[in-house]
Each structure stands twice: as C-alpha cells, then as structure tokens.
Amino acid sequence: MSELFSDSVTTNIRAGAPIIQIIGHDTLRIHAVCLEAAQETNRTLYIWNRCRGIREFQGTSEQLIKENINQLPELLDWYLSESFEPDDFSDAPDAEQSNSILLIEDIHAELEQADPSLISQLRSYALQKSRLELTDQAIILSQPVSCLPVELQKDTQVLSMPLPDREEIKTLIEATKEHYGIDDRDFDESARLIDAALGLSTSEAQLAFAKVAVAKGRLTEAEVDLVVSEKEQVIRKSGLLEYFHPQFALEDVGGLQNLKSWLNRRSEAFSENARKCGLEYPKGVLMLGLPGTGKSLTAKAVSSSWQLPLLRLDMGKVFGGIVGQSEENIRNALQVAETISPCILWVDEIEKALSGMQSSGSTDGGTTSRVLGTFLTWMQEKTSPVFVLATANHIEMLPPELLRKGRVDEIFFVDLPTCEERKDILSIHLRRRDRGDALSDDNLNRLASISKGFTGAELEEAVKEAMFMAFSDDRPLQWTDIERAIQSTSPLSVTMQETILDTREWIKGRAVPASAVKPDPLPEAKDKSDVRPRLIQEGKNPFVKNNK
Ligand SMILES: Nc1ncnc2c1ncn2[C@@H]1O[C@H](COP(=O)(O)OP(=O)(O)OP(=O)(O)O)[C@@H](O)[C@H]1O
C-alpha cells in the first residue's frame, strides 16, 4: 500500500480535518487505507454503503451494525448523535461510534445534486469539528469521481487514491497464481510483468492477470505483451490517453539535427546510471512549428529510441461536461502517466485545448485556467520520470505561462526543411517504401531544390502520389514522377508566408531552432505586397497574446 497515501489519511484524521474525501475506483484498497488509519489512531471503522448498510470493521472481520439505513440524514444522525445507545438498533449489539471513523461510500450523486439538507448537516458537523467539539468522530467520503458542492469545499480535504504500486501488483500476481493453481514452473515474478500492469487499477490488473492465466495457464515474462495489450485497452477506454507502439526511430526523422542531438544526449537520462551520476530527470520539451513538419513523428521516434512507452494525451477530451470533471480528468491522466513512468507523455496540439483562456481570466467559468494551472504546476513540480513532449502549431494561441522558463527544459522551433533536409526526407520516404535505390543522388538533389517551402508531410505525399503514377502506368518509379507530383502541389507555406515570417521573427531568443542549418528564404509569392512582414516592423507578433 502506498505508505505516503495512508500516512496522509492518518495525519488528516489526527489533525481533525472536518471531512476527508478520497477519489478512487479501488474500493478494497480504500477500505485497507481506512482500516490502517483506524488502527493507527485507535479508532473503530464503520463503513456505510447503500446496499450493505453500516458495518463495523476489525482487521479482516466485519460485523453488521445496521442494515436498512438508506437515507444519508438518518446515517449522519446516527453517527453524530452524542448519546448513541447501542440498543437503538437491535442488530447492533455493542456498537460504539465514539472514537471512530465513518467511511461513506459513493454519495457523489447526492453531492452533485447539492441536496440542501445533506449539505447543512455536513456543514454543521464541520463547524463542530472546527470548534473541537467532535474530536472523536471522523468522516471520510469515498467516490470514483470528484464532486464537491461549493459549500463544502473549504471544509474538505480531497485526496486522490494512487494506482497500485509495484508491491501491490506483485501481490495480485501471486493471488492469481494461487487462485488458478499455477505451479512454480509456470510462474515468475518478473519485473517486466509487474511493470506491464502499472497504470491499471486493482480490478483492471486482476482481470488482466486472470485472462492471461485462463488463456495460457501460466504467468511468466512471456505474457508481458498480453498484459500490455490489456492495459492499452483500459487506457484507451479512459478516452484521454492513447498508448502508442514505437514504430519509428530518430533516424527516420529527416533534418532537425539540433533537436535530434539534444534528444540523443538524453537517451539514457532515465537509467540507473544517470541517477548515480547525479543527473536529474529531464522534464520535457515544447516543439513549435508548422503542421506537417515532423513534430508528431519526432514524439513517436523518441519513444522507440529511448525504449520508453509513449502515451498520447488528448487535451481536447480532458474537458468534460460535469463541473469539476475536467480538472479530475487531467489529474487522472497525469496520475496514469506517473504510475506507468518512466514514460513519454506526448501532449499533441496543446494550444487547441488551452486556447479558450483569455489573458484576463477565462471564458468558461475558469475551467480552462484551472486545467492549465493543474498541468503547469505538475510540470513544474513533478519528480517522476515522465518526459513531456508537447507540440503546438499555433504559437499565437499558447498561454504565456507555458513558455516561461522552468516549465520545460527547452523550446524548439521546427521550421520548414532546408534543401539538404528535404533531400534527407525524400530519401527516408523512398526507403520506407523499399524504393531507396530508385533515384540517383543528382535526381534527389534536383527534387530537393524544386520543392522549396514544402513540409515533410507534403514531401511524403509527393512520393506517395508519384508511386501511384508509376503503378498505374505499370512501370518502375522515376524521378520525373516525383517532379510532377511536386509541381502540381501548392505548399501550405505559400499561403502562410506572413505567418511564417512573423513567427520566425518572434521566435528569436525565445526558442531554439530544431534544425542545425539556417532556414531557406520562402518561395516567391505571386503578389509581393501580400507577404510584407508588416508586423515585424512594429516589433511584435500579433499572433502572440501577452507573451513577454
Ligand atoms: N522531418 C521529417 N522527416 C521525415 N518525415 C517527415 C518529417 N516531417 C514530416 N514527415 C512526414 O509527414 C508526416 C506528418 O508529419 P507530423 O504529423 O509529424 O507533423 P506535425 O509537425 O506533427 O504536424 P501536425 O501538427 O499537423 O500533426 C509524418 O508522419 C512523416 O511521415
């Protein structure tokens, strides 16, 4: 059991916290935490839920105190009545609610409806606690989602139940072995098997191990992939995170030499050796740039080069409908990433989700700024080995707080590829399609020079299109196919000239170029007045709000 978490529950009880709220799905582990707190503080533990009534817990034994209490006011009356008489309840032979903890399970629906009588009862209890009139009682609310009426916010300590750690996962593996009668030859407590289940709740991990045990009749390192694929499903179900399988290496990214060298220098940053040498975990990087310039590809490639799992966080989905849900979502997603760590957390197009925020506050009742606040505080304070790779296309939409020093280790600007880089990218895409020898070096140089202003994605499209041309004519690929494909494409950079020029200017001193070479001048536009860098002359970038 996460000792830190148990300690914090116990400390809150000892300190007389009026109400403690534990957010988590793991009912059994929450019971265990409360039982531990009860033992530590010498108290009796009562657990109430709608189906099972009030039960008194002592170690592993439990005793029914009162079966048919369905209404919360009745439950609180019982718990808070000063002169509780055991005889009030015929089936409660020797109940004694003083010096006790009452764990109330799953009343989030009532809390969400903000039932006035429930709130006033809890508030009056909290008031008595603050006057030190009710030192013997402690109320803990446990629920899978965070929900707290505003009236109770100041009186409630909210704690998130951490996901099972390695020790707890190990216990689950051993229990599965016992349950399915797996003998020692077909069982090992491989660290990789344990790691594979990190990030799952107790019931999810239990089910994953049970499925493997039923299907294979063994639990060994050979089953790691099965557990990982169960985990992927669970992570996907949450809707916030997606688990990626490494497909590309950093060598599959054309150009971006500065960025790749920076990343290569940190490839062992999460190893034991790095700790021994006194290195800190790198926090992460922010990659800014045009769409299609290889930012997402780099995220995927880092994961495979560093051999770390890659989790993609969909910031758009973080924003849920219910009040408080968005903050809860981001906390949950970060918690999963921390549990799975060391890992890479790829936050794609971070600006889209955070753009609702205005400089003065917010447009959505403060939700965006609270989500941003949660994320930035986590970035600043995190000590776990989660490397954040955030990408953004629209610099103007980025909140200034994100760009401040200390949030990430470095901010890289990914510009359009230079001539040499375009050649590199074309070769990579030809190689990827088994056409690595199809073109001579001279022809590659020619294609690179006529594709000025093309992004990596546009170059890839040209290669794909050219291959279709050759295929439909039933002949091998020729460099002229790619030439035709390039000539019939109007690259994005032509329509975005002003933005690109302004951004290049703005980026100076704020971000490091991802490429090791100076960017090419942009291709000629038809009407030169369209591209006059008017805003640069004024010394500011209109796309960037409040960036100092
Ligand atoms: N530097 C590059 N080297 C090799 N391929 C590239 C490069 N840049 C882009 N590509 C190709 O273009 C595809 C799209 O690029 P990618 O998704 O990485 O761009 P992005 O900068 O993340 O853009 P977006 O923000 O639109 O996702 C990649 O899958 C890759 O095949």
TrEMBL record:
Superkingdom of this protein's organism: Bacteria
Keyword Glycoprotein (UniProt): no
SUPFAM superfamilies for the chain: P-loop containing nucleoside triphosphate hydrolases
InterPro entries: AAA+_ATPase, AAA_domain_protein, AAA_lid_3, ATPase_AAA_core, P-loop_NTPase
A Pfam family hit: AAA
Domain AAA+ ATPase as annotated: residue spans: 281-418
Region (Disordered): 512-548
Assigned keywords, A-Z: ATP-binding, Nucleotide-binding
Compositionally biased residues, Basic and acidic residues: 521-537
Name of the protein: Uncharacterized AAA domain-containing protein ycf46
